[in-house]
Amino acid sequence: MTFTRIQNVRALISQAETILMGSHDPLHDHRHAERVADYAVAIATELNITKASHIDALRLSAWWHDISRVMTEKPSFLLMPFIDDTLSAVILAWTALKSGKWNRTVWLASRLILAKSVGTGKLFARMFLTKRMRLLLDILQDADTVDTLASERTRIIRELVESSRAYHYAYRVMVWWFVSTAFLEVKTNAAKAQLMIVLQEFMVWVHQEKIMKWHTDRYGQEWIDYVHARLLFIMTQLERDLAFVRIHTVS
Question: Highest taxon of the source (predicted)?
Fold first, then answer.
């Protein structure tokens, strides 16, 4: 039974990878899903989560959480964040049922994606997840957040901004939103450490002379200064949290 479950999970992950390779949204393609899966497993490992079915559910949910974005050639910047997780959860469940791959791991992964939904996620979490399972939800959400400004995405972002006026404005608004709200807040200490690394890499990238000029020419010095100040503030908060954890771990 366990072997069959593992086979089914692997098959569904492979299917998701194939589907996402055809995504029209390069920021939410198979590379993003793979990184989120890797982050999720790394965070879970740091938190001493060792149950195979839980690790598999995290990996499976990471691979399927953006699957609905392949349904349209032009995913909406405004609409998709509110519906993509809900649709993706339904698509995963339906695909598994239709192909005879349904099992408890798929059920858990579907619930994690559903509970990750913007707006309705908290309600779904209370309805479908036990308190113990909500830690897995935190891990999945944290992993997705960590990848927001991952260095692997920066080249893609530049290409998109260069080729599309919509992405030009979207990048400006999204980065402002990321640094101005609680968007980059993560719940687990393991994710805070991962996010710190990602933000440090992002700052190094932005401060390259060529990249800084690229940003300044398009968005202005005032925007650059604001984003820089906010990122420094976020990183300072992260460092304080991590230092607090280190002190209490030693003591």
Answer: Bacteria
